């Protein structure tokens, strides 16, 4: 079993995700760090690091370092400074039957919904528009909302499924949308990088993806959307096969 599989990462809490994100972004240094050094660098306690190791199936930190080194050695060599380590880690984490089953369950929900409404803001708004067009191309009419002030009413929510996209799962406007759809008895499916987020907890069904969030100037989110594109396209293709 791969070290960073989806089921294991999905079970990490917020503090343990700090360790995961630091390890992925600083893998060359982590291999030579003591547990105290890693804890200090990630801003957590040594107890959190130990819990993180055990949730990945390691008996302790020493075994984690050995398996982490093996994990890195098995990865394809890639150009330096390309930022692909996080992407490789994501694809490794979803390349398993558990994640495939999760996507199949999502497709069943989509099939039983009369129409799909994709919701997102900022960059996730662009992904919502892409998702709506992709699903429509696959034979399931969908539309999108990227206006944070768009009104939600009973007619639009009836027999619909709202697929809500958010990197953090904590954007106030997005949480408002999720709450309004729920109040109108519309099912909510979330796609977010944080399965402990408010959005994930509010949703009827959640698909989480795990990749370090990146911001510049403290505010501008430049986190890669490749995992979102992969999830949307995989759902769309599974859906097309089911509708055929």
TrEMBL record:
BP GO annotations: carbohydrate derivative metabolic process
Transcription regulation in keyword set: yes
Domain SIS intervals: 106-242
Keyword DNA damage: no
A GO molecular function held by the record: carbohydrate derivative binding
Domain HTH rpiR-type: residue ranges: 1-75
UniProt xrefs under CDD domains: SIS_RpiR (cd05013)
A Pfam family this chain is assigned to: SIS
Keywords carried by this UniProt record: DNA-binding, Transcription, Transcription regulation
InterPro entries, per database record: Homeodomain-like_sf, HTH_RpiR, RpiR-like, RpiR-like_SIS, SIS_dom, SIS_dom_sf, WH-like_DNA-bd_sf
Name recorded for this polypeptide: RpiR family transcriptional regulator
